[in-house]
């Protein structure tokens, strides 16, 4: 572990004693930071995950030639999805650089604005029939911009929440921002699912566009909340103490924390794979089987995401009590034990068993290891390098896990051994073993102090 200095999060008006009672004003600032991080992250991930939900249902049909093989069109749509994940580390480094120099608040305002504009543009995009090859090219461009914005969003929102509270609550606070992911997924799949019930011609002509256009209203609310939140107390204190450096944060992260960075990346890849597998690949997969309709599959994902919202802070709170490593390692065991039962349920052909598969996958398998991830990553880096460090580790983990999930699932399903989802299960187990090893060889950081 590279961090050795004594650092405990404090609010601007907090006393030097980390256990001292908080004033009403301090509590108000904390609540505002938590709400702002949660709602801002929700809006951001609504925009980002809306593409994922549409990638298997809409884009292969509308943004590629009708003569193209449907499987190839789906693969290309997933490649564009991956492009957004690949650009996320770049966005993380970019916004992390300025977030570590000038503060978290302004960067979060910019990332949210970018996401809103891109989503509205996707909702207004002409199809392949209207503009030809320019349609998929434009889609790639917008997806990359989305990825840049999300790359700066996750770490900033997580830190704004975690750095406003006391050390003993840091895991839970960080998870409040993390739950913006499943909350955004709920909104994205719920809204898209409502319109997916339209006849195919109406859904494909205009129904799928409405959820993207609705993003504008959500962004206005998110921007208002972010305008009212105060800057991170940890950053303000670091700045006042002269700890904010003028160099290049990414270079410091790579040279000061090489093991922490590598372990952080590997620890996130496994649970993030499961998140994207269910959100992007599983919905069209079960719908194509004929066991459930497209709309029913989206509603199953939505229901599991609702439970997911509460499961993430539950496991994060456990990590505040028992430590990040024990909870995440237990989550790895749970993930390996339940992956084959999850696929058995998914392939059952039964409405209720398929719905149960989503419930096993999101709130249990994914959340058990993912819940503490915000604090686990944030505590690896000192304040002046934290935005960049958390952005880099999480977003690289996203590329390896979530970004490749639909493509890997499609490839593994098509393997000549005929094992189908069994191939996916074994690949997931491999990712979880790697993630567990990364957590095991990381030092416990729950009681380490990280403010200036």
TrEMBL record:
Residues 1-13 have a biased composition (Polar residues). It is found in: Cell membrane. It is a multi-pass membrane protein. Gene3D superfamilies: MFS general substrate transporter like domains. CDD domains: MFS_ShiA_like (cd17369). It holds the Pfam family MFS_1. Residues 33-447 form the Major facilitator superfamily (MFS) profile domain. The keyword Membrane applies. This is MFS transporter. It comes from Micrococcoides hystricis.
């Amino acid at each position: 572990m590279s961090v050795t200095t004594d650092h405990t999060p404090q609010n601007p008006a907090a006393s030097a004693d980390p256990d001292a009672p908080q004033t009403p004003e301090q509590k108000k600032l904390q609540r505002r930071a938590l709400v702002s991080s949660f709602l801002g992250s929700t809006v951001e991930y609504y925009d980002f995950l809306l593409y994922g939900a549409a990638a298997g249902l809409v884009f292969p049909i509308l943004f590629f030639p009708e003569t193209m093989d449907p499987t190839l069109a789906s693969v290309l749509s997933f490649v564009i999805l991956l492009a957004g994940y690949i650009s996320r580390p770049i966005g993380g480094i970019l916004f992390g650089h300025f977030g570590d120099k000038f503060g978290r608040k302004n960067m979060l305002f910019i990332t949210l604005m970018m996401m809103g504009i891109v989503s509205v543009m996707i909702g207004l995009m002409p199809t392949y029939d209207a503009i030809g090859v320019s349609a998929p090219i434009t889609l790639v461009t917008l997806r990359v911009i989305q990825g840049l914005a999300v790359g700066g969003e996750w770490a900033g929102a997580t830190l704004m929440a975690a750095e406003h509270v006391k050390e003993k609550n840091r895991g839970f606070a960080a998870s409040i921002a993390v739950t913006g992911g499943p909350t955004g997924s709920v909104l994205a799949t719920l809204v898209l699912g409502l319109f997916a019930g339209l006849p195919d011609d109406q859904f494909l002509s205009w129904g799928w566009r409405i959820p993207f256009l609705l993003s504008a209203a959500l962004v206005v609310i998110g921007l208002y909340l972010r305008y009212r939140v105060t800057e991170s107390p940890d950053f303000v204190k670091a700045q006042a103490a002269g700890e904010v450096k003028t160099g290049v944060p990414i270079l410091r992260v790579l040279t000061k924390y090489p093991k922490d960075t590598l372990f952080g990346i590997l620890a996130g890849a496994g649970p993030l794979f499961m998140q994207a597998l269910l959100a992007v690949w599983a919905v069209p997969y079960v719908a194509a089987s004929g066991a459930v309709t497209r709309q029913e599959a989206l509603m199953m994902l939505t229901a599991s995401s609702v439970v997911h919202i509460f499961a993430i802070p539950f496991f994060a709170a456990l990590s505040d009590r028992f430590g990040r490593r024990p909870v995440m390692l237990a989550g790895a065991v749970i993930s390996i034990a339940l992956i084959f039962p999850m696929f058995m349920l998914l392939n059952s052909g039964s409405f209720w068993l398929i719905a149960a598969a989503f419930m096993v996958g999101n709130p249990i398998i994914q959340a058990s290891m993912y819940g503490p991830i915000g604090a686990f990553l944030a505590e690896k880096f000192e304040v002046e390098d934290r935005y960049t460090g958390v952005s880099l580790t999480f977003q690289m983990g996203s590329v390896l896990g979530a970004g490749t999930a639909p493509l890997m699932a499609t490839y593994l399903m098509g393997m000549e051994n005929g094992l189908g989802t069994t191939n996916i299960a074994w690949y997931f187990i491999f990712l979880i073993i790697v993630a567990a090893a990364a957590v095991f060889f990381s030092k416990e950081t729950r009681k380490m102090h990280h403010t200036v």
